[in-house]
Amino acid sequence: MDTFTLAATSFTIALSLFITGKTDRLQRAFAVLCLAVFLHQTAVFFRELFAPDFWTAVATVGLFAIAPPAVLFFRQLTRHTSSLPRASLAVTAALSAAGLVIGFSPLGSEPRFGWAGSAYTGAVLAVCYWALFRHVRRLEPSTEKKRLGYLLIACPAAAVLCSVDLLGLAGWSLPPVAGLVLGALLYFTLLVIAYPQLSELHDFLARALVIFVCTLIGAFLFYLVAYLFNIVLPSFTTVIMTSFLIVISVTPVKMILKKIFSLLYPDSKDVFTSLYEFDEKLEREKALLLAEMAPVFAHEIRNPLGSIKGAAQYLQSEAATEEQTQLLNVIIEEVNRLNAVVSQFLNYARPGSGKVVAQDVNAIVARAIAVISADRLADRLTIRRELHDALPRVPVDEQQILQVLINIALNAVEAMPDGGTLTFRTSRIDTAAGPAVGIAIRDTGRGIGPEELKNIFKPFYTTKERGVGLGLAISQRIIREHGGAIRAKSVPGQGSVFFIRLAAAGRN
Question: Least enclosed by CB within 10 Å: which of 285, 366, 458, 460?
């Protein structure tokens, strides 16, 4: 099972690289290397079951086929700047070809020939590792050096773990693990070459943890089914390896089926979209469509509005009566209002592009209070601040969060035309994922009805006579883009409170 695991893993990785149709030279070289490993391990596996002479010959071909693609892969990995010259590929190919010729001669039946072939392949891999090590040492500090450095650490770590199998040869009753370890090494190498956006060690560890947890869940399901139906399962190691193979095979199998179904049913593009992801996919598509449409929409509206305003201002200067002047003023005011509506629509449609840095939330709240206090409508209000003294800093765009606070506060001011109390409160929230900061804005106004409360964050929903209905929608979008949450509670006749939660800096 250990040999089969490595064979299936290498084949799955090669297949996943080929069927994407986006492989570059580096990924193609790695895919060919994985196919060579698959050929050798498959032959070793079947040699114990069927026609040993035939599968021994296939295993010999696979063993000598590993070295040339290994050299090609490491040269591509180092962008042809390593210590491996171009001639090394030709030399390795010639040596492998000579080994194959000897392998099919009477000398190939000698037991020592098999050891010699393994030693040759191991020596080539060792030389490739040495060349990669020298290449990484020469690199300037960069993301590439960091990622290749992780690979340099992973290779000897895998070799140490594989040495556990030597204890089994020495008489220890330990299950073989080399196939599983080398399969994991191939998968880790795939992450390094296929996902350049992964640069930090925790990114790789997070992906490895996902695979590990899914493997354990698969093993648990195997044992659960076996317990319910009284089925005798093989050893725990075999179950873990089987679960690991299933987990890493899901994506390639899904991609193959997707290509097949796209040929058979070209109109069923979303057949493999999860039901849980379907709504999110639709929301993303609508957001992208809105972002593309908004600038065109704004341009087509603002141009005629500018012409209307210019004509009205010209006619205003030529107006003969007061009544004509007032009518033209109405035209200019409405044009300005429509321009404001278009500006708010653009703010809602455009994705966030602010500068996010760690900020003191209390300082942002204090700025919002200063802006609200300067509004003449706030003269009849009592503004209270209840700010927590020891808040962690929060990674946010200051201007965007200030926009959210002012928007909510101005709505609160309008909800208290006869005066009232506007309270700003900050608090520290400790969660399992780490600390967060809470912001609450409370008013004692007329409140919001239950039906209205369900719709207040929807675009273009408003209860104001001359409102646009985008203020709270924009606020919610800003908070979500910051990874936070916003919600509201209200009691008609008693007031409303808006709660905002933002993750603190350094939170995992």
Answer: 285
